[in-house]
Amino acid sequence: MPGFATRIAEFAEREGINYDLLFSHYWLSGEVACLLRPGFAGGWAHIAHTLGLVKNQTLATGARPEPALRIRVEGEIAQQADLLIASTADESMELVSAYGADPKRVFVVPPGVDLSTFQPIDRTEARRKIGYGSGRLLVFVGRLERLKGVEIAIRALALLRDRSHDDVRLLILGEDSKDADESEKDRLKAVATELRVRDRVDFLGSVVHHELPFFYAAANVCVMPSYSESFGLVGLEAQACARPVVGSDVTGLRSVVRDEVSGYLVGGHDPAAYAERIGRLLDNPELAEQMGLRGRLLAQRFSWTRTADRLEDLFDGVIERAQVRVHASARQE
User: Fold this and answer.
1) Which pLDDT score is estimated for 58?
2) 172-205 pLDDT, tens per residue?
3) Order of strands, edge to edge, in the sheet holding 21-25?
4) Among the CATH numbers 3.30.870.10, 3.90.980.10, 2.60.120.1440, 3.40.50.2000, which is that of 123-299?
5) 241: buried, middle or exposed (CB in 10 Å: 19+, 13-18, 0-12)?
6) What global pTM score does this model have?
7) Which of 77, 124, 192, 213 could form a disulfide with 198 if both were Cys (CB 3.0 to 4.6 A apart)?
């Protein structure tokens, strides 16, 4: 990171660029901003996306804790950044209570969803597009790591199959990760084989963004059994496509999914509880459709236009205050 920060500083000096604002995402780019900040007169805004201390409080069995370096860097960011953007009110409180951030510098700005891309599509057409025919589909979208709870979804599928839902298939979309020095995809395949549902679980890897709506629309239910989420963007995208969500009752998902309105929020990590909620929706297509339509209405509150307008207002304030500091410093000299 120091080398990357040095190259940015050298580029700015060589090109004669004076940046008005540093905007860092995640703790790694936040570390770069920490290093750049002393040499820049402009303001600094940061969005964490996830917080290491919060992730460590809700680790899945066998998952590797976030390193002490990350926790330390996140603490420095919380103390130094002019503006800290949280995705939810819960995350803003965590920044204050766990990292000692000044509440006056923390603002909640939920991410948005592209409602023109993620929108309802006829299920038959969506399935034709992705190469699936009849049979009910569950979809999981996200990076394959223990934090995301994909094993819970597989175990729930096995329970559903035992309950005569023999046509149900689970589509898993997302890149593999090396959690605890092993391939999470290989581990999940072994779990599916052990539970005798390997023939009903499709690992499809990463999917380009503009094709995601077809997978959401093709599914009967979107499943999000995460141990922790800073914001439930996948759930929001699924709802924008008018599909119900069965997810974990964690802060990030509570902000976008309404329990028993647009889906179900499940407390704890019991696959049987997930199987029961998923089964309700599979056995009652009318209920699933109603929840999906309500989810679409909820998603319309999270447009990118609204998010961008709010960020622009906050950035303008940071830049203005930075300029005041520069002028005050110049007068003192």
Assistant:
1) 82
2) 999 998 766 789 999 999 999 999 999 999 999 9
3) 21-25, 43-47, 83-86, 106-108
4) 3.40.50.2000
5) buried
6) 0.88
7) 192
